[in-house]
Amino acid sequence: MKIVEVKNLTKTFAQGYTEIKAVDNVSLEIAEGETLAITGQSGSGKTTLLNLIGGIEEATEGDIFIDGEDITVAGSDELARIRRQKIGYVFQDFNLIPILTVKENIIMPLLLDSKKVDKKRFGEIVSYLGLEERLDHLPSQLSGGQKQRVAIARALINSPKIILADEPTGNLDRKMADEIMALLIDLNKRGITILLVTHEERYGDMCKRKIVMRDGRAAVGEIFKEK
Amino acid sequence: MCCLLYLKRSLLRRPKRHLSLFVILVCAFILPLLISIYRDSSQYGERLRILSETRGETFHILNAREEDLSLFEGLRGLSEPFYEDGVIYLHILSEDEWRDFWALDGYSSQISDIIRGAAENRLMLRCFEYDYANAIPDASQNLQQVSLVALNMFIIFISSLTVGSAYKSHIRRFSADMAVLRSLGAEEKQIYAIFLCEFAVVFAMSAAAAVAISAGVMKLLFSAYLEVNGVDGLAWVIFKINPLSTMLHIAFFFAVLLVVIMRTLVKASKESTVSAMRGDIQSHELKKKLPKMKIKAKPENTLASLWLKRTNRVHASCLWVTIPLMTVFLFLFGYLSLDAEFVSQPPEYELWLTKDATFGGFSQKDIDYVSSLPEVEAVDCRQDAPTELFNKDAGGLMIDQMRIKLTSPELHKEVESLLKSRFAGMEYTIDNFQAVAEQGAEMSKGIYLMLAFIFSAIFVFNAVIVYMKLRDYIDDCKKTLRTLSTLGAAERVVTSSYLRQSAASAAAATLVPTVLSIALLLLATIPAAIKPSPDLSLCAVYFCVSALTVCAFMLPIRRALKENFGKRAEK
User: Torsions phi, psi of A75, nearest 5?
Assistant: First the structure.
């Protein structure tokens, strides 16, 4: 079953008097339980593609279906609901809310969905990510690796269909980065679909499929590689 | 050089921010300048009133005729006398002698002897001490002026703290720039120089604009309504600006603000350069002990309560500015309105004719004369101690008084001149309360206009500060907004949560000044035994002020969020 389907997706930005195509006519599909890596050099359009799939940015042309729902035609409330219920986001710079404790950051997606916290599931996630001792800390009191674990816990709390990870290892040292990647791969083994954006080949190679972006295009052939 | 380059770029590329600071400073200046101009004008008016009374002469010989001049010619130590409108004037030539009480007494006795010698009972002598004759303020008047200057300095001090809080916000906005400059090797003194130079430029422009605006508005108000010149029974107030006093106010303002800004700069220099470059320094620092988050049924309620508990410092600082300003304004409005109403109330008896009764009061003939005037409706004759009367100049142990009610109040001038021609001389005083009431009514229009101007300045001052602080607050929340959005928070939910936080502050900013100002008004009117009654116009003013205050708190948040979401949608 397809979790993500992208058809002829284009995103242009105006830069002065010229128009830049950050994403140029990209089509792709991601099946349930897959891990797909999008790699490419800086400025190749990989993060823009991820943001378009996550509904954070608006497409100029093309369609994006998440679990069968076309997000390019969804209104802002509808888009917010899809993000809340179907997508989990992990960022390079963590994007934790500085005024909230670790626990509050993790349960925020549930609160936004007016759902009660399932204590059992919360406990499982926290213990899986080794955050039991840090629940009452503020993000400013955590290390980079811990912050990213909190971000992953937050992405998992709503049982999303897919996790979108944008350079999740970008701000971490090698050891910590390896740990986070191992966590993501393990989550995939537990049935969660992962879409990973990374510029590091070795992490891209850990995924089942890989797309290399160049000048906003997904270069089919050398890039589209089944593992 | 670097300082000037940065200043030029900063002024040109962030014109809105500098315009905000300019407006804040101009408005902060206006109230002290208005008070200063009013003080200068009343001091000048009082001086002219005294000079018009004394003509700068030591002796006035009343009820005189031109042929009496020869009696006082060639007196040693005294000027040559001159005659004008029934009065002969002359003064002591030596200022030192005039200042000396015994010398003054000696000259006074000499002239009294001449009057007695001439057997002219109609001639009456009036003499003035040097300081009074030349309108030199005495110790009590000086104390009054010093108190007013001190009050003004206090207002400036409070205003400076408020402006300083806005400046703090402004400097924080540029903490990232400061950090970058520091990382490039800029010394702290170079960074201070940039901000101080910028401050000096904005301050100079604001001071000039504020003086021009205040002077222009006050000149207009004085010309139209507020000037009191030549009215008996009212203190004279004539438009005047004392440049020295204005400069003193500006210098004091500059000095206090300089201290406040230097303090902020020194504090900012101690912040981590790396954090500042990343933009991690936020104006809404967290409390050390976090209050617990309450989970509510609706996400917007949960978020609103969270913001209120954890990021309300900016709102609290806005309240620290708004509550005192609005309280002072509402109190001032209520009090001056009552005063204007009191002064302009029509008197029961339009004219009071008072006579020193030491050597006998009004004769029946006098009373009959006044009663027989066709313009007079009733005469109330009283004999009283002078302390109980409005005009204490009457002198003597007992005084006789005729309180005259006219058939029509508009006839007060005609009757006054009739009385003046009939009852000439020093022992009579005529008080025209109808003229005072008419002048009061005219002045009350000016007072309302002046209040409207003061309110506009105070409100703009407050609104710009609140706008700046709340916009900065939402700017600081951008990361949180972005994260919430990626977590699936609907725009409506986020906007509503921040608006609810602001609504709580708006409610406090509306209710607290209303309650406080009413309480202060009740307290202030106790000594005068005036009971302030809630009339429609007062309620309308309170309502308008409340509505504007609510807008001042809600609009910046709404606008900043709209722009924030709009920018993201554009991207």
Answer: -75, 175
Query: Residues B116, B150: one domain?
Result: no
CA distance A117 to chain B (A): 10
Angle at B372 between CA B370 and CA B373, to 5 degrees: 70
B456 within a domain of the structure (yes/no): no
CB contact under 8 A, A83 and B487: yes
Percent of chain A with pLDDT over 90: 56
Query: Nearest CA of chain A to the CA of B188: how many Å?
Result: 27
Nearest Cα of chain B lies from the Cα of A203 at a distance, in angstroms, of: 24
The verdict on ipTM greater than 0.90 is no
Is B169 in the same domain as B270?
A: yes
Contacts of A56 in chain B (CB under 8 A): 485-486, 568
Chain A residue with minimum CA distance to B479? A95
Residues of A in contact with B480 (CB under 8 A): 97-99
DSSP H helices in B55-138: 95-99, 101-117, 130-133
Give the span between the Cα atoms of A23 and A12, in whole angstroms.
7
* Residue in A with minimal Cα distance to B297: A114
Based on the domain organization, do B14 and B161 belong to the same domain?
yes
Do B74 and B167 have their domain in common?
no
Strands of the A18-31 sheet, one edge to the other? A18-31, A2-15, A61-66, A69-70
Q: Tell me, yes or no, if A108 comes closer than 8 A to chain B by beta carbon.
A: yes
pLDDT category of residue B389 using cuts at 50, 70 and 90: very low
Fold that domain A2-226 belongs to in CATH: Rossmann fold (3.40.50)
Q: Which residues of A touch B489 (CB under 8 A)?
A: 80, 84, 112
Q: What is the pLDDT of residues B70-126, one digit of tens each?
A: 989 989 999 999 998 888 999 999 999 999 999 999 999 999 999 888 876 778 888
> Per residue in B38-71, pLDDT tens?
889 988 998 999 998 899 999 999 888 888 899 8
* Main-chain phi, psi angles of B384, to 5 degrees: -150, 165
Tell me: pLDDT of B426 over 70: no
Side-by-side strand order, sheet with B399-406:
B376-384, B399-406, B351-356, B428-432
Q: Let me know if residue B432 belongs to a domain.
A: yes
Compare CB distances from B489 to A57, A80, A91 and report the shortest one's residue.
A80
Q: Inform me whether the C-beta atom of residue A118 falls under 8 Å from chain B C-beta atoms.
A: no
> Where a domain ends, among B82, B114, B133?
B133
> Which residues, including other chains, have CB under 8 Å from residue B369's CB and lie 6 or more apart?
B422
B311 CB within 8 Å of a chain A CB: yes
Structural domain boundaries enclosing B266: 1-37+142-281
Residue B542 contacts residue B459 (beta carbons within 8 Å): no
**Residue ranges of domains in chain A:** 2-226
Give pLDDT, residue B470.
92
Residue B90, in any domain of the structure? yes
- CA separation for the pair B432, B441 (Å, rounded): 15
- A223 close to B (CB below 8 A): no
Residue in A54, A95, A109 nearest the CB of B479: A95
Share of chain B above pLDDT 70, in %: 88
The structure's pTM equals 0.74
Q: Residue B535 and residue B28: Cα distance in Å, rounded?
A: 31
CB–CB contact A77 B483 (8 Å): no
Mutate to test the interface with B, among A48, A102, A111, A119 (most CBs of B within 10 A): A111
